[in-house]
Amino acid sequence: MTPTLPADSRRFRAEREAEWRRLEHIVATAEGRSVKALSDEDLLALPVLYRGALSSLSVARETSLDLELVSYLEELCARAYFFVYGVRTGAGQRLRAFFARDWPDAVRGLWKETLAAFLLTLVGILAGYGLVTADPSWYDSLMPGDMAQGRDFRASAEQLRSTLYDGGSESGLDLFAAFLFTHNSQVSILCFALGFAFGVPTAMLLVYNGNTLGAFMALFSHHGLGLEMGGWLIIHGTTEFFAIILSGAAGIRIGWSVIFPGEESRIDAAARAGRGAAIVMGGVVIMLLCAGLLEGFGRQLITSDLARYAIGLTMLAGWSAYFYRPRRIPNG
Fold this sequence. Notes:
This protein has 13 helices and no strands. The chain is mainly alpha-helical. The chain has 2 domains: 7-88; 95-324, no CATH class. Helix 4 (91-108) packs across helix 12 (266-301), helix 5 (111-134) crosses helix 11 and helix 9 (173-193) runs parallel beside helix 11. The longest helix is centred in the C-terminal third of the chain and has 36 residues, at 266-301. The protein is elongated.
């Protein structure tokens, strides 16, 4: 049974309820369909009705009218606020904003961490290359057996050469390429996910990933196939390793925020850093997909070393320009 309302509350409702109901209908239409479904009359009435509902809510609170009415008006005003003042963008607009502004802005905001991640990877590459060149026995220690798949110092130069150009056999380079892509995708995720541990695991992963690449380069260089191996790798590697470095940068940013949270708590600082880093990681997924396509199709179909280098370097220049070219700051 509905409780009897005080006379002043009933009168207050009777005087304004029609406006509330109309506002509720307009908001429900916008929520169920879209703002575009509203008529011009409803669009013009929306802010007026919203301000009227706010005024009614203020009166209801100050005069201690029934709690049910106050709760109804609070909910109605909260729903209407989004359509009066909120940013209403569709999925297409949000996607365009991600590619046009959000992702490149987030990457540029991590330029210091990106440089650190690149240097860590470079140190790993140089260390792996130097160790294997000086002592080939290091190769088996730095290169996992599943990744090597027979590409080691026991293989002849012709066998290694065939893996760079003959991609049709399941026992050949295609399986290795798939494993390499999966490995690098896992490294990207772990570089980001383990950043909270003060960034130490992220740094170690970047160095380790560089070690394997350096060892691999040393193997082919030892057999006089360094240039050919570079073409095989660069066509997809510039995109793939760029993605790994950005993942490392995101993890380093989180780790740095945990170490030096400033005036925030460590949890709040890590959460704030994580929001920006998550945007970067959303883009990293796209980069890894692009690398997968280049690896699965471009590298298999294109066997010219010159073409491979041209594509790989063009991709690197394209990503660099996309992320770091100056952008006009919108007015206002």
